[in-house]
């Protein structure tokens, strides 16, 4: 504990480094995955290619990817950009499947009703499919956020500063408190971003809470019906 | 691109093949390490997962624990356990096993839960005992999701075993850290390519196994995916529930 209080500045700096590394990949992976997921959902051929490719990318271990990206893109090994690219790749790989599943989960009848009342393809996507897939997308994005925050620590072993630096430093100097502080802060940061996404979901998707009460109402009605 | 040529030359250099620190020895070490960790995790997680899936009890606890474990950074766990246990193979084994448990556990109980309730009720109504239901209905039908869980656990362990080279003298990760220390980019990149290749080969094997374990009767007449109307929700956002982190 004393270590914790006497190193608050360091902890704060590493937390900021960590945020800079992990927030851009979360946003970028969402922005990139939505159009890709749409393609995968819309075209059968696209589905196989995109989902297989994302599955393979997801299978690549993180540390080797940090070494391979500089050789392809020309970034320097220790630069934050290198990590941001790698983390974005994982985020996209995870998110594409979620987007495709989410769009596929939109009821066919709803889609056809939208066509019948005159929505164009473009506005069906923005005003019908995307909002209805919203809860699924949000759930996927929460997983991306938590795993990105956790993954960003790996960069520390190649010298990219983040909360992970507390692990490497603590290990080399034998300071347990430093490693524990790093774990606690990483988990806290993940929970914080997760909570922020939940709040964002409540603001952007107000009907999801409504639907939950609806379902309860339906269940109550069913039980009443059965016992009558 | 000649960076990759250098890396491939490094891999093919006969000098890197000999001895306990050579590429074949390190690859086998990495594989054995991965298999043992996944096996230990399976021994713990599968029975517990089956129990949760069959009884439906303790599910929220299992979900919360797996969710919490997902958030814990692997490197943090590795370094912490290494400080506790001391430098050697013990620390990575403990850390890797702990990390492999959540996806396998989730796969085990999610597999049971994804089964149509009416199937299990019919089994019960024709007079099957609970152990028969588990053994002949629930396990075979739940197998694809269990294998999916073991698959993501394996991939995660392969990835983390690379990282384990930071705290112990083990596996292909040694090449990455040795190269980093001597600024030998060919070695770093060559080692990285080997790990990626290993991960992709394992991924390929699991893809085949996953197809094989689907019971024949189920494979031929898969019900159309209709998430909106299925009686029991398809477990979670499926890629998410069994996916681990790297």
- Sketch the major β-sheet of chain B: none
Strand content of chain B: under 5%
Secondary-structure element string of chain B: HHHHHHHHHHH
- Domain count of chain A: the total is 1
Helix content of chain A: over 70%
CATH topology of chain B: MetI-like fold
CATH topology of chain A: MetI-like fold
Helix content range of chain B: over 70%
Query: What is the mean predicted local confidence, pLDDT of chain A?
Result: 85
Question: Could you name the CATH class of chain B?
Answer: Mainly Alpha
Largest chain interface and its two residue counts? A-B, 51 and 52 residues
How many angstroms separate the termini of chain A?
62 Å
Total beta strand runs of chain B: 0
As residue ranges, the low-confidence spans of chain A are none
Question: What is the CATH homology-level superfamily of chain A?
Answer: MetI-like
Q: How many helical stretches of chain B?
A: 11
Structural class of chain A: mainly alpha
CATH hierarchy, class of chain A: Mainly Alpha
Radius of gyration of chain A: 22 Å
Please identify which CATH superfamily of chain B we are dealing with.
MetI-like
